[in-house]
Each structure stands twice: as C-alpha cells, then as structure tokens.
Specification:
about 400 residues; alpha+beta; FAD/NAD(P)-binding domain; 2 domains; six-stranded mixed sheet; four-stranded antiparallel sheet; about 25% helix; globular
Length: about 400
C-alpha cells in the first residue's frame, strides 16, 4: 500500500469557547446548554439536518424519559420532548387522533432542535466534516474541518465529541475500544446479565461474544402507513415461525428475495433479517415504524464496510415492505412511506476514559458526583451473529 501526503490551504480561521462535533440529540443539547451559559459555541454537523438517528435516522422510540417509578427526568430532555409533542399534535395529527410516539416525531424533532440551537445563541455549521485536529502536547487546540468552501481551522478552549463514532477521540489519539472485548461472555454471567429482554435464555448461543472485536449489526428504519396497529401488535417482538403466519417454506422460497442478505434459511423460523417482527407506533395511529432490517459484520468506522452496509440494508427495506404486506395481519392495506436517509450504526468506538461505566454500574443504579445525564432503558445488545433475539 502506498501512502501519500498532501497539503491544502486553510481558507478560514474561526475562534470559539466551545466546539461540538455532531448534531444529534446529544450534540444539540450540549451546544444549547453551553451557549446558555454564555460561552461562544459552535456546533458542526456533516449532514444538512439535526437529530442524528432520532431525526433523519427515524429511530422514534424514545423510552428513557422517566425513572422506574415514573418520575420525569426533566431538564433539557423534557424541554425537547414537550416541544416536539406540541408541534406534532399541531401539524401531524388530524382530528385530535390519539398520539403514538409524537414526543419523538423525527421530522418535527429536527426543527425543534434547530430552534433550540438558534434561540440559545449557538452557531451551526451544516455540511461540515471533521478531518483533523491540532494538539499542543496533551491539549487539543483546534480542529480542521472540510466545508464546501474549503478547509477551516476552528480554535476553541473546549471540544465535545458527539459524533457518535468517537471521530474526535480517534483523531486526537486518545484510547478507545471497538466491538466486544475479551471475556465479555463470562462477565455477563458473573454479573447476572445473561438474560434477553428479561427472559432467561440459553447463553450457549452467545459464546461468540468472547471473540474480541465483534460489532452489533446495523439497520435502516422505515415507516408504513395504513397499518392496523392493534392487529400487527399481536406478532410484535417475538420469534416468528412459518406456521405462525401460515406460510410454507416452499411459498417463501418462491419470493425473489428469498436467500438474499438477511433472508437466508433459518430452520423452522421465518428467515427474516432480524429473526422477528419489530414495530412501534408512529406519530399517527395508522403509522408503524419498522425496525426489521439487519446486516451483520459491518464496521461503521471503515469506509468500504460502511458502504457495504448501506447497500445491503437499503436493499432489505422494500423486501420487508413486501413481506409485511403479503403475510402479516394488520399490514393488508398498508403502504410504504419513507426510509431513513442514513444507516443506523449501533456500535463503533468507545472512549476509554478516566472511568469506564460498566453494565453492573447501570444495573445497580450507581450514582456519580460528576453525572451529566440520567437514563432508564435496558441494556440493549443486538446479536452480532445475526438472528438470535434480540
């Protein structure tokens, strides 16, 4: 392999107190709070919209808003979800229809976040990609970002990595890990976390977690309208066999996508990419958000692998639409609405910080003096090997 070095002119230099890389929900919250504290703040985002996976990614289920005893966490999270719900009711739900997941309506959320940033006094640079950093010993002094008008050097006192992939961490040569770590299977057993969605399970299927570097699969969310959600809900989040839906193997094998990526034979179970039907209610009662695509073996920080994942996951979408319309009660009169504009990556780099939060810390609800957020969702690990639940 040949290595090449090139130089490019810096077209502009800008200075801030705080720079945040990544315009997902975490990045937007960070930018708004920093600006409200009186700090000159810049948020850079490589796409042209805010919200990340909760916006253009259409990952609508937003479950970690209350404690286990139903106390709202409050804070900027409540501010964002309250505004999103109010606008979704106003602009998305006719005839005072009952709200589904209005509090995280993706195409309302991105405008709520936009106004949040602007009203806080922070600045946004869309279509801007982090490419390099400038360090003075241990201190990060600047980032280099590529824009449509060339490379910019952006100086700041503080930097926040909200890229989702730890891009700033990696460019700064800080320590990180990727994928599963050695002996993780034994650790799960020792800490009592060898369960699946609260069900006891044969963990023999999960011994491959011992292999260092295994990554959780990638997916693309999509939505369908005209769904009888109550009927469809009867088949939700459970392993589906041929007999469950009255389909024969021979009937399925005649489908043009049978045997393709994600639809390979799976014994008596229906050969679906995720091994199950998994839907949640959309903003409207008759809209379902579908989380059923799955591609394994994709490394989201390696460009060729990421591209491969995009292609395979996107091809699965219309196949899944066809399957749902053909076979699943409640989808008989449904229609395809849209799919996410970006691949859903569950796992890439994880920073090795001064303290590494463990699953046991979460299970035991340990409190920390320097905590910046709360959460109440389960530890959600998707099988790196494919179709074992979840």
């Amino acid at each position: 392999m040949n290595n090449y070095t090139f130089s490019s002119k810096i077209s502009k230099i800008k200075q801030y107190d705080v720079v945040i890389v990544g315009g997902g929900v975490a990045g937007c919250a960070s930018a708004a709070i920093a600006a409200r504290k009186g700090l000159k703040t810049l948020l850079i985002e490589q796409e042209g919209t805010l919200g990340g996976q909760a916006g253009p990614g259409i990952v609508t289920p937003l479950s970690s808003t209350h404690s286990s005893d139903n106390i709202n966490f409050g804070g900027i999270l409540k501010e964002i979800t309250d505004q999103t719900t109010t606008l979704a009711i106003k602009y998305c739900i006719p005839n005072k229809e009952r709200i589904g997941e209005a509090l995280c309506a993706p195409h309302i959320l991105k405008y709520v976040l936009l106004n949040l940033i602007i009203d806080s006094g922070a600045e946004i640079m869309f279509h801007t990609t982090l490419t390099d950093v400038v360090r003075n010993d241990r201190k990060l002094e600047s980032i280099i970002a590529f824009t449509k008008s060339g490379y910019w050097k952006i100086d700041a006192k503080y930097f926040i990595d909200a890229s989702g992939d730890g891009d700033l961490v990696a460019l700064s040569n800080e320590e990180f890990v990727v994928g599963s770590e050695p002996n993780v299977f034994n650790y799960l057993k020792e800490t009592g976390m060898d369960t699946i969605h609260s069900e006891q399970n044969d963990m023999a299927n999960y011994k491959t977690y011992d292999t260092n570097g295994k990554l959780q699969p990638v997916s693309i969310f999509f939505t369908m309208g005209g769904v009888d959600y109550e009927k469809a809900q009867n088949f939700n989040n459970q392993t589906i066999h041929y007999l469950t839906l009255g389909i024969s193997k021979e009937e399925f094998e005649k489908l043009p996508y049978a045997g393709s990526c994600g639809f390979e034979e799976n014994g008596e179970k229906l050969p679906l990419p995720q091994g199950r039907i998994l839907i949640s209610r959309g903003v409207r009662d008759d809209v379902a958000v579908i989380n059923m695509s799955r591609v394994i073996g994709i490394n989201g920080i390696e460009s060729e692998s990421l591209n491969d994942g995009e292609i395979k996951a996107q091809k699965q979408v219309l196949y899944l639409v066809d399957f749902l319309k053909r076979f699943v009660p409640g989808f008989n009169h449904s229609y395809f609405l849209e799919s996410a504009s970006t691949l859903g990556i569950r796992e890439t780099r994880r920073l090795v910080g001064r303290y590494v939060l463990s699953g046991k810390d979460v299970i035991l609800c340990r409190k920390f003096d320097d905590a910046i957020a709360r959460g109440s969702y389960m530890i959600d690990i998707h099988d790196p090997n494919g179709k074992t639940k979840p």
